[in-house]
Design a protein that fits this description.
heterodimer; A: about 280 residues; alpha/beta; Rossmann fold; three-stranded antiparallel sheet; about 20% helix; globular; B: about 525 residues; alpha+beta; Cytochrome-c3 Hydrogenase, chain B; five-stranded mixed sheet; 17 helices; 15 strands; about 40% helix
């Protein structure tokens, strides 16, 4: 017993200061890819997750990348597209709207910012957020729900409770019963074998409830996509409040998304290439 | 045992002519059966006098190939320590109009799930199988729809239809009650349903129902280019990302007939040991959670976190994704990273020794672990379990030595100390993990000493040859994973199958739980620490 106390004292405080202080990922970290407008951008077939798409209009070739689908493998930033795409280190990517996760650039025109519809979603998002804030205050108690993940996202959610991230210091916690929860953190693309359990668990959470899709599979189907055994993303089955991209998202990225969910941090807004 | 003796015994054991060829690898044999009826007799020859165990079963739909029909390949491997690196395939052609094969399950219990899976996904019926229930497809799956047949379009969703309750296998009697647990659990863990029948606290029977996370990944990979399919293989399981990515790569590289550069082999083996290390250290911490020893849990989590932060510096991903790629590795080990690696491993070793010291000196923890969840040696052999589970029950098998891969495939492989303990209880599994974690740290040092400058990748050449089979076995943190891959004439994935170590080990959990009390189940389960995602795929 004495040794345990001594060891604990010797170890000291290992907890991160994030989000009060920024977290700087290591050099090799693969965050949001940055597409360079007016360059030789890769064709959609390069992406194993199908996150890259293209369309053509009078201004030329538009290439867009869906961060919700991206598995951050870095293949589109390898040779021969090194000059066109770079893996950035931005990991704070959570968004309230799926559209905000789409990066689009015009491949043939360096000057032109790609045109995009400007949906009036601010009012809608602010409305949802204020209702949640009114009822939940600043704390958030979540149920984890594995909807068919590869377990990487699950382990990162579990890591939030380790001494380094310790999300309880931010008044976020995980609870055992959906009845005790304010919301749910869902991982995985929603498999056919779990669809019923996912619906029932979410329905057991009292309203208003927050649904957070953690990781590429939950946010969009990711590399699994839609198939005989997979719905291809949580929003095919239930409305989603916050999308957290990543394969898996690093723990700080999940913390960011959870703080976005309770309205304590601003969500990612639609961005155009490197314009951020 | 020489190949000649084996082929003679197989010919003697069959009632009609069989063809025996070398393959898929140069050290392997493939036995094509003339009559499907011979299957039981030939399997008995392999498992009996030749001491082999069933490694995996791969069904294929080859109706579109000139050969035609369905095929089932029963792949066996030796069970003796340091045996010849060999797989023996019994190839049984199946008539698609009457898709039936004899069931091996009664004679070879390890065939149980493989045969049920084949029935669900291909509609190939194992005649005489004792369990008629579905395994992979769950409630409300339409009759007569078999998703892994080539005629089935896997890209469309199959809706969930109302269905009757699944017939769980339960014990009945006075004072016996059922405890249903899951599929959604209270903690942050993967989904599975456990149906206990118990008298008081004592578990009479445990029926585990898995495959909730079945994503159809093997079908998903079919038709993809081998490079695209790699990214799916790497994502079958989070904590086995390196092992499964590497297993797929080795199978593909066999098909392509290329030799991966030495430096890349060493970096691959380093990655594999680092994956084992963060898993084992984290698992020891989680086992402490099962025994309500919170200091141990927090220490395990902290040590694991430190290792995963190092992973992110090495590979750009905390699960080491994006390091191994077909043909080699994508990233080099730079000098500054070597320093980080050495310092982190040194601290991990000290931290692990401290943690094990606290566990072993704490009678309340040791008391929970000792004699809990015992898997007897014979049961371990019958179920053909693998990895820590097998070695803690006295089975001396390790794919790094028995099916050399990565840097172990060199002419002068480093010495590997295979840890075995005979008790088969939770304490044995903790101890095997701790000793293997130390061995991993030593091995990383050994690999680093052997590093010499050189290329990181070799081109696979396009198009890749169709028809050829790639077969690889990788020792992941949970045991031996067996990968089977074949490309079609256009060089795209025709069929890929993964037999994960967890798939093989799950039935052992149910068996070990039947010797425990209900409150010990979380501890028993954590002491095996199996993945659901690589089992379910």
């Amino acid at each position: 017993m004495l040794r345990i106390v001594l060891n604990a004292l010797r170890t000291g405080v290992v907890t991160t200061r994030y989000p009060a202080e920024p977290s700087v990922p290591p050099d090799r970290f693969r965050g949001a890819p940055m597409l360079r407008a007016g360059s030789h951008l890769p064709p959609p077939s390069v992406c194993p997750a199908g996150a890259i798409s293209e369309r053509f209009d009078d201004r030329g070739r538009h290439v867009s990348l869906d961060l919700a689908q991206c598995v951050f493998c870095g293949r589109c930033a390898d040779d021969p597209w090194k000059d066109a795409v770079a893996m950035g280190r931005d990991f704070e990517l959570a968004a309230r709207c799926r559209d905000d996760l789409r990066i689009e650039v015009v491949a043939d025109d360096p000057a032109a910012a790609a045109a995009r519809p400007a949906p009036d979603r601010d009012a809608e998002a602010a409305g949802a957020s204020s209702e949640i804030r009114r009822v939940l205050g600043r704390s958030l108690h979540l149920r984890h729900l594995d909807a068919g993940s590869c377990n990487a996202c699950d382990w990162e959610l579990a890591a939030l409770l380790n001494p380094v991230y310790d999300v309880r210091r931010l008044s976020i916690d995980f609870v055992a019963s959906p009845r005790h929860a304010d919301g749910v953190a869902i991982t995985g693309p929603v498999t056919r074998n779990l669809e019923t359990a996912v619906r029932r668990t979410v329905e057991a959470i009292p309203d208003p409830r927050i649904v957070i899709a953690v990781g590429a599979c939950a946010a969009s189907g990711g590399i699994v996509g839609e198939g005989y055994a997979s719905a291809g993303g949580v929003d095919r089955v239930l409305p989603v409040d916050v999308y957290i991209p990543g394969c898996p998202p690093r723990p700080e990225a999940i913390i960011f998304g959870m703080l976005v969910a309770v309205g304590r941090l601003g969500a990612r807004r639609a961005c155009l290439g490197e314009a951020r | 045992m020489t190949n000649a003796a084996l082929t003679d015994a197989l010919r003697a054991g069959s009632s009609s002519s069989i063809t025996i060829d070398v393959g898929p690898r140069a050290s392997d044999l493939t036995v094509r059966l003339g009559r499907a009826d011979d299957l039981l007799a030939l399997a008995a020859v392999l498992t009996g006098p030749h001491a082999m165990a069933l490694a995996t079963v791969v069904a294929t739909d080859e109706t579109r190939s000139p050969d035609g029909g369905f095929k089932v390949r029963y792949i066996f491997e030796p069970t003796v320590a340091a045996a010849h690196d060999q797989f023996v395939t019994l190839l049984v052609p199946v008539d698609p109009t009457r898709p039936e094969v004899a069931s091996l399950t009664v004679a070879i219990p390890a065939a149980n799930w493989h045969e049920r899976e084949m029935r669900d996904l291909f509609g190939i019926v194992p005649v005489g199988h004792p369990d008629p229930r579905t395994l992979v497809v769950h409630d409300g799956w339409p009759q007569g729809v078999f998703p892994l047949r080539k005629s089935f379009d896997g890209s469309r969703r199959v809706p969930v239809e109302p269905a009757e309750e699944f017939p769980h296998l339960v014990a009945e009697g006075e004072g016996v009650f059922e405890i249903p647990v899951g599929p959604i659990h209270a903690g942050i863990i993967e989904p599975g349903h456990f149906r206990f029948t118990s008298v008081g606290e004592t578990v009479l029977h445990l029926d585990a129902r898995l495959f909730y996370t079945h994503r159809g990944l093997e079908k998903r990979m079919e038709g993809l280019s081998p490079l695209d399919a790699f990214y799916v293989a790497e994502r079958i399981c989070g904590v086995c990302s390196v092992a499964h990515g590497l297993g797929y790569c080795e199978a593909l590289e066999q098909i392509a007939g290329v030799d991966v550069p030495w430096r890349a082999q060493l970096i691959r083996s380093i990655a594999l040991e680092l994956e084992r290390l963060y898993n084992h250290v984290g698992d020891i911490g989680n086992i402490c959670a099962g025994a309500a020893f919170h200091y141990g849990t927090a220490t395990g989590m902290r040590l694991k976190e430190r290792l995963q932060q190092m992973n992110e510096r090495l590979a750009g991903n905390r699960f080491l994704r994006g390091l191994v790629v077909p043909g080699g590795v994508r990233l080099d080990l730079s000098d500054d990273l070597l320093g980080v690696l050495a310092a982190t491993l040194q601290d991990t070793l000290a931290g692990l020794d401290g943690l094990m010291g606290r566990i072993e000196a704490n009678p309340s923890v040791v008391d929970r672990l000792d004699d809990t969840g015992v898997l007897p040696h014979q049961a371990a052999l019958d179920l053909a379990v693998t990895g820590v589970t097998a070695r803690a029950s006295g089975v001396d098998r390790d794919a790094r030595r028995d099916h050399p891969h990565g840097a172990f495939a060199s002419l002068k492989p480093p010495d590997l100390h295979v840890v075995t303990i005979s008790e088969g209880d939770a304490m044995a599994r903790v101890t095997v993990r701790a000793l293997e974690a130390r061995e991993s740290i030593r091995l990383v040092g050994e690999f680093l000493r052997r590093l010499e400058p050189g290329p990181l990748q070799i081109a696979l050449g396009e198009p890749l040859p169709g028809g050829r089979i790639g077969l690889s076995a990788i020792e992941s943190a949970r045991g031996e994973a067996v990968h089977w891959l074949r490309l079609d004439a256009g060089g795209r994935v025709e069929r890929y199958h993964l037999r994960s170590p967890s798939y093989q080990n799950w039935p052992a959990v149910a068996l070990a739980a039947e010797r425990a009390i209900v409150p010990d189940f979380p501890l028993v389960n954590k002491s095996f620490e199996l993945c659901y995602s690589c089992t379910d795929r």
